[in-house]
Design goal:
This protein is α/β, with parallel strands linked by helices. It folds into three domains: 86 residues, Elongation Factor Tu (Ef-tu), domain 3, CATH 2.40.30; 116 residues, 3-Layer(aba) Sandwich (Rossmann fold); 88 residues, Beta-grasp domain (Ubiquitin-like (UB roll)). 21% of the residues lie in helices and 31% in strands. A five-stranded parallel beta sheet has the order 9-8-7-10-11, with helices on both faces. α6 links the parallel β10 and β11. The protein is globular and about 60 Å long. InterPro entries: 2Fe-2S_ferredoxin-like_sf, 2Fe-2S_ferredoxin-type, 2Fe2S_fd_BS, Beta-grasp_dom_sf, Cbr1-like_FAD-bd_dom, FAD-bd_FR_type, Flavoprot_Pyr_Nucl_cyt_Rdtase, FNR_nucleotide-bd. GO terms for molecular function: 2 iron, 2 sulfur cluster binding; flavin adenine dinucleotide binding; metal ion binding; monooxygenase activity. It holds the Pfam family Fer2. Its cofactor is FAD.
Length: 339
């Protein structure tokens, strides 16, 4: 079984963004895409550890050091804010996630609320520095004191007039944004690809707004923050659904990843992600528990069943999206794509 590919990153500095949020800046180079996240190992106080996912707010196109931004909201986030300083080291998994634009030249419509600005800012920085696209950002917060990156966004908008327009929505002034209000803000930009990140009620309102405007599912991307129940840093052999012998039936799998196509025999009791990694195929993953979307792929033919799913909704599944870490084959032939 392929072992967890963890990295140890030294911390260059910790920047206080608000009274409840900080950015951890690493003295390291990372190969990542805008909108991706890092899975961080955090000590649990009993000699063990837990894993938490934090989005990168930096951009791989600006030359800045990579950084994750953390808002206090539970044990892991509080531990980072209270204990990590310049000179600390954090063990992380390689950058992962699919909340990333396919092109930096396209015009984008972005919705963020609270700490959901973190991966969205990475996308904003990347499009402005490495592409030609224009951006309309709707950013919701409780009040003006809770706006993370308010100064950064103002400076970016001033430096790129006409390419970045930011609309701030403050609950203390305007109340919680409704689907109808978000629809009105989005209506002039229906041709744009959409990215949504924030608390579930906000994301629900924004996705409802997109449906009312007739946006196809493929043009609307969401990023959901969850707390991992399992620990991907534990490298024991994952449990299989069954233990197939040499004569156990197999399906035929065809997979498209990074421009390459592979054909493999897929034993009925093996999870898709395990099969790919065991065959040297560098498929994306993070939690391996069905609690994040890092390993998401699309079924283009055939059928699979998922053993566990905490992140995909019914529309994702209807669109053929599955989690590779939890998928077993049901048909004799299955084709999947990561493209």
């Amino acid at each position: 079984m392929t072992e967890t590919r963890s990295l140890v990153l030294p911390v260059a500095e910790v920047v206080e963004e608000t009274s409840q949020a900080c950015s951890v800046v690493f003295d390291a180079e990372l190969d990542y895409r805008p909108g991706q996240f890092l899975t961080v190992r955090i000590p649990d106080g009993d000699g063990g550890s837990v894993a938490r996912c934090y989005s990168l707010s930096s951009s791989p196109h600006t030359g800045q050091r990579p950084q994750v931004t953390v808002k206090r909201d539970g044990y892991g986030s509080n531990w980072i804010c209270d204990n990590v300083t310049s000179g600390s080291e954090l063990e992380v998994l390689p950058p992962s996630g699919v909340f990333t634009p396919s092109s930096l030249t396209s015009d984008l419509l972005l919705f963020a609320a609270g700490s959901g600005i973190t991966p969205v800012l990475s996308i904003v920085r990347s499009v402005l520095a490495g592409g030609t696209g224009t951006i309309r950002l709707v950013y919701a917060n409780r009040d003006e004191h809770s706006v993370i990156f308010s100064g950064v966004l103002r400076e970016l908008a001033e430096a790129h007039p006409g390419r970045l327009v930011v609309t701030h929505w403050l609950e203390s002034v305007q109340g919680l944004p409704s689907a109808e209000q978000l629809t009105a803000l989005a209506a002039p930009h229906t041709e744009r690809e959409v990215f949504i990140c924030g608390p579930r009620p906000f994301m629900s309102a924004a996705t409802t707004a997109m449906k009312s405007l007739g946006k196809p599912r493929s043009a609307v991307h969401t990023e959901k923050f969850v707390s991992l129940g399992g620990n991907p840093f534990d490298t024991g052999t994952p449990k299989r659904e069954d233990e197939p012998g040499q004569d156990s039936p197999s399906s035929t799998l065809e997979v498209s990843l990074d421009g390459s196509r592979h054909e493999l025999a897929w034993p009925r009791g093996n999870k898709l992600l395990d099969l790919l990694l065991d065959n040297g195929i560098d498929a994306p993953y993070s939690c391996r528990e069905g609690q994040c979307s890092a390993c998401a792929c699309r079924i283009t033919s055939g059928e699979v069943k998922m053993l566990h799913n905490d992140v995909l909704d019914s529309e994702d599944i209807a669109d053929g999206i599955v989690l590779a870490c939890q998928s077993l084959p049901l048909t004799d032939e299955v084709s999947i794509s990561y493209e």
